[in-house]
Design a protein that fits this description.
Blueprint lengths: L1 H16 L3 H12 L3 E5 L5 E4 L2 E2 L7 H15 L9 E4 L5 E9 L2 E9 L10 H29 L4 H8 L6 H8 L8 E12 L7 H21 L3 E7 L2 E10 L3 H20 L11 E6 L9 H18 L13 H8 L2 H22 L3 H10 L4 H8 L3 H15 L6 H24 L8
Antiparallel strand pairs: 1-2, 1-6, 2-3, 4-5, 5-6, 7-9, 7-10, 8-9
């Protein structure tokens, strides 16, 4: 008990003097004499072992391997298992781990690598208490850093609005306002994005909703920073507007691929957050424009991001990419702007088919879409639709009757494929306008 009291006092002193996690982890190592693993989604992970840690250039590569093993094991656990628990690494070692919770989200884990049973000097209960005390101190430090980061960004609200809406008159002056130094050799990459926090059932507790959104913003900011992306964020109601910045001194396209990988990981981690679980009625839709090399072009990237979110929310497909460059034909369809023109195009090429499906409750549109996607391969189409081949033949005969015998000719087929994608975007408006009326070819 004396050791625990001394340990707790030392943690309190460390919290007053320092705001970095390595100090806390070294104290844990000092009082446990065990290897300490720190796995985090909001800052760099660490490994403390005797005199070396993973941030030390002289440390063994086995430290990084242990960090990866621990992180992968922890990340594979279901959300309900995120409590203090003993995990077994792939190499057979056991780690007693304690979650660090903040903003309703598990931000990090502290773990102690347990020695073999025949070499264990201190009890597991003592180790668990050390982890309990350390996690509370670590939580204070992490939350302090998150709130400091959030407060320091308040002055950027007007700045990010000017950038995203194209009001950049003097690029060098704007870069200086952001706090970016001039680069003599390299250059900056700018990517605009938007994150929509959507609740199927809007909560009446307005204050709690606002606090929840602010928590998500702070978590997002920390995740972006941890993955090496400088960012400006602006929360307005349930929408987060963001500008991501990365400097590059090498191949621009290669750097952009790294940024995309980082953004994918950030969104994946954000979606796994406790704040975004189904019980909270909160869904996330994210979109990013294409990379730009000038700040003044960030507004174009922002418009592209808006198109991405607009499409992903309409389609509700989990596999849909969050990046504008991966939208394919939807880039062109969204750029048309005139919805009535899209509806006319859909009506002309798919009107008879849509009318038949509506009147007879048949899935001919789905069949046509899958048949074209399978390049006319009947067996594959039947398997993808989970129907017998004979059923598919009957549907194909009906398609030929409704669309004409030439519907697979190159030009006609292209129009049908575009019309199907366009219908994804305008079907709600078409259904409203044709309520109670038949669809004419």
């Amino acid at each position: 008990m004396n050791a625990l009291s001394e340990f707790s006092h030392k943690l309190q002193q460390a919290t007053l003097k320092a705001t970095d996690m390595p100090t806390i982890l070294r104290i844990v190592h000092e009082y446990s004499s065990l290897q300490v693993i720190y796995h985090s989604i909001v800052e760099p992970s660490l490994f403390i072992a005797d005199t070396l840690d993973s941030s030390d250039s002289s440390g063994s590569s086995s430290f990084n391997e242990t960090l990866e093993q621990f992180g992968s094991t922890i990340d594979s656990l279901p959300g309900s298992a995120r409590r203090r628990l003993k995990v077994t690494l792939p190499d057979g070692r056991n780690v007693l781990s304690q979650p660090i919770v903040g903003l309703g989200q598990v931000l990090s884990y502290i773990g102690l690598v347990l020695p073999p049973q025949n070499q264990q000097i201190v009890s597991e209960i003592y180790i668990a208490l050390l982890l309990e005390y350390a996690s509370k101190t670590a939580e204070q430090i992490l939350l302090r850093k998150l709130f400091l980061d959030d407060r320091s960004s308040d002055g950027y609200s007007r700045l990010i609005q000017d950038i995203l809406f194209g009001e950049v008159s003097h690029e060098d002056q704007m870069l200086a306002q952001i706090g970016l130094p001039a680069l003599s050799d390299g250059k900056y990459l700018f990517v605009s994005g938007i994150v929509v926090l959507e609740r199927p059932e809007y909560s009446d507790e307005h204050q709690s909703v606002k606090m929840l959104n602010q928590d998500v913003v702070m978590l997002l900011r920390s995740l972006l920073s941890t993955h090496g992306i400088y960012n400006l964020l602006l929360l307005h109601h349930n929408v987060i507007h963001l500008l991501c910045i990365r400097e590059t001194f090498a191949n621009t396209e290669a750097q952009w691929e790294k940024v995309k990988q980082a953004l994918r990981k950030v969104i994946e981690l954000l979606k796994k957050s406790n704040r975004l679980r189904p019980g909270n009625n909160l869904q996330l839709h994210a979109g990013f424009g294409h990379m730009k090399t000038r700040l003044r072009d960030a507004a174009q990237s922002y418009r592209e991001a808006l198109d991405v979110v607009s499409v992903t929310r309409l389609l509700a497909r989990t596999s849909m990419s969050a990046f504008y460059e991966d939208m394919g034909i939807y880039q062109m369809l969204k750029s048309i702007g005139n919805t009535s023109q899209l509806i006319q195009f859909v009506q002309y090429h798919l009107g008879s088919l849509l009318a038949h499906d509506q009147q007879n409750d048949t899935p001919l549109l789905q069949t046509l879409d899958q048949y074209l996607s399978c390049m006319g391969a009947k067996q594959e189409t039947a398997e993808k639709l989970f129907i017998h081949r004979q059923t598919l033949y009957h549907r194909l005969d009906k398609l030929k009757e409704l669309l004409g015998s030439n519907y697979l000719n190159a030009e006609r087929r292209l129009c049908l494929e575009v019309a199907i994608r366009a219908y994804d975007l305008v079907k709600d408006e078409m259904n409203e306008s044709t309520s109670g009326e038949g669809l004419a070819h």
